[in-house]
């Protein structure tokens, strides 16, 4: 269903310029949520997947520019085979079921992470939704599937090495911007706000390069219970912070990144 945008002044008491452009979320706690209710772990993943829709729609209505969700890490392949297979089936089901919502809410889907190893059915439904939403102009949804930040940096190094080998680049020309341009997230601003649910105080190999100056917000709320009031709290907390990027207050201008 297509919904009217939210007014952040009315919803959050904030001016639009106080909102983060890019929010990244480590969606943690599905398994614990299921365990607490005496349910199989996959039930927690199902509930977590259903909750993704609520957060995407809320961010889209707030006119957040970019939302990056850590959905399945490269390390998650170590989980029990039946759980991984159920998760892959859930991706297929989710991508088919939510495709209409993504299109109607003007969301553009982009996948980040290595494609190698993902089942053909997952890749097919991902590619279909990516293609169908490519001209949407609202929220950019980056879905991190089979993602590892260390792998991303390795892939960037390999790309730059090939550029040097081909004579298109010299070693001395490699700087932070060249590395940025070689990452999966090339062309978009770094996350302003990183949210982690379920209370864990670690980054878990997520956007290690990109979150150098991100504001962190950790909540004890498990991902299936994470609602719009919780992301509103995170955004309001972000708006209260002074971002100095290594400088001091007098050095900072509102358009510095």
Structure overview:
- With 257 residues, the chain is α/β, with parallel strands linked by helices.
- The protein has one domain: Undecaprenyl pyrophosphate synthetase (3-Layer(aba) Sandwich), CATH 3.40.1180.
- Helices cover 41% and strands 13% of the residues.
- The protein contains nine helices and six strands.
- Mean pLDDT is 94; it is low at 252-257.
- The structural domain count equals 1
> Which class do the helix and strand fractions yield?
alpha/beta
Strand segment tally: 6
Task: State the order of secondary-structure elements, H for helix, E for strand.
Answer: HEHHEHHEHEHHEEH
Number of helices, where a helix is a run of at least 4 consecutive DSSP H or I residues: 9
CATH superfamily: Decaprenyl diphosphate synthase-like
Shape annotation: globular
Q: Which sheet architecture does the biggest sheet show?
A: 6 strands, parallel
Low-confidence stretches: 252-257
Beta-strand percent range: 5-15%
Strand order of the largest sheet: 3-4-2-1-5-6
CATH structural fold name: Undecaprenyl pyrophosphate synthetase
Give the proportion of residues in helices: 40-55%
CATH architecture: 3-Layer(aba) Sandwich
What is the radius of gyration? 19 Å
Q: How confident overall, as mean pLDDT?
A: 94
CATH class: Alpha Beta
- CA-CA gap between termini: 35 Å
